[in-house]
Design a protein that fits this description.
Layout (H helix, E strand, L loop, with lengths): L4 E12 L2 E7 L2 E3 L3 E5 L6 H8 L7 E6 L2 E2 L5 H6 L2 E3 H4 L8 H13 L9 H4 L3 H10 L15 H13 L5 E5 L7 H14 L4 E5 L3 H7 L2 E6 L2 E6 L1 H4 L3 H7 L1 H9 L3
Parallel strand pairs: 4-9, 4-10, 7-8, 8-9
Antiparallel strand pairs: 1-2, 1-3, 1-5, 5-6, 10-11
Helix pairs in contact: 4-6, 4-7, 7-8, 11-12
Length: 258
């Protein structure tokens, strides 16, 4: 049903001086789903994300959010609608504590982001909410840790907490498990599943074990075009997809759910 589609692209095209990076992409992201965008390197996944968050204007096509055309909106307008990309607001402050970083994320939501001169007491009200968010992402024991000292996987959890502070309806996660060891990948995967409970997640992800375990729907891009779409079981057996991945990556695609 149309009202179940929170985000839709129609004939989305992005050209760079004659090179077509995104070609006629029609995406439909269903409300409440974890939707994964996968594809080999250079497939156009990050360009699609940049179009959705208005970091790039499309050459042609439309972007609709809750049925409204938002194609021409500025990045800040789109973010205010509740479409938030993790790195957009997750430029964590390395020399502040974990708790202070989340509190700043909450201040943005209140429109007091730059009131750093306010007395500490006026910010106390945000402490409980900040601590609750830290508990959500499993960082309650790190509240007073200076962010620069956090292990890599925990930093990504903090980024998700600062993203959650803005109360997004649609979270865009760009390679959330990139560069992580197995234990961190598992922790962040479970975290994404947990925070998706009452919101929609669109993610670009290379790790097929992550995709197979939590994605409700998958769109596969190759050379800027969607070549397959559906649940993991269907997509992972698609001959076009296996050909796009080739060799060892194709074996990983087939074996991820095995």
């Amino acid at each position: 049903m149309a009202e179940d589609i929170i985000l839709e692209t129609r004939g989305l095209v992005k050209e760079f001086k004659g090179f077509v990076a995104v070609s006629d992409v029609n995406l439909k992201v269903q409300r409440g789903h974890i939707h994964a965008l996968i594809g080999p390197n250079g497939a156009g996944k990050t360009t699609v994300f940049n179009l959705l968050t208005k970091f790039l204007p499309p050459t042609r096509g439309q972007i609709l959010y809750k049925g409204q055309d938002i194609t021409q909106e500025k990045p800040a307008q789109t973010a205010r609608r509740g479409i938030v990309r993790s790195f957009q607001i997750s430029a964590t402050f390395p020399h502040l504590t974990v708790l202070e970083n989340v509190r700043i994320g909450l201040q943005r939501e209140l429109g007091t982001s730059f009131h750093f001169w306010k007395s500490e007491r006026t910010l106390e009200a945000l402490h409980d909410r900040a601590r609750a968010l830290l508990e959500t992402v499993g960082l309650q024991d790190y509240a007073d840790t200076v962010t620069v000292e956090l292990p890599y996987g925990r930093k990504r959890a903090l980024e998700i907490a600062t993203t959650l502070a803005t109360e997004p309806e649609l979270m865009l996660l760009d390679e959330p498990t990139q560069g992580m060891g197995h234990e961190d990948v598992e922790r962040v995967t479970q975290l994404i599943k947990k925070v998706s409970a009452n919101r929609t997640v669109l993610m670009v992800e290379h790790n097929m074990n992550v995709v197979s375990s939590i994605a409700d729907r998958i769109s596969v891009l190759q050379r800027g075009q969607v070549i397959a779409e559906g649940p993991y079981e269907t997509v992972s057996k698609d001959p076009q997809v296996l050909e796009a991945y080739m060799g060892s990556e194709a074996a990983e695609l087939r074996g991820a759910h095995g």
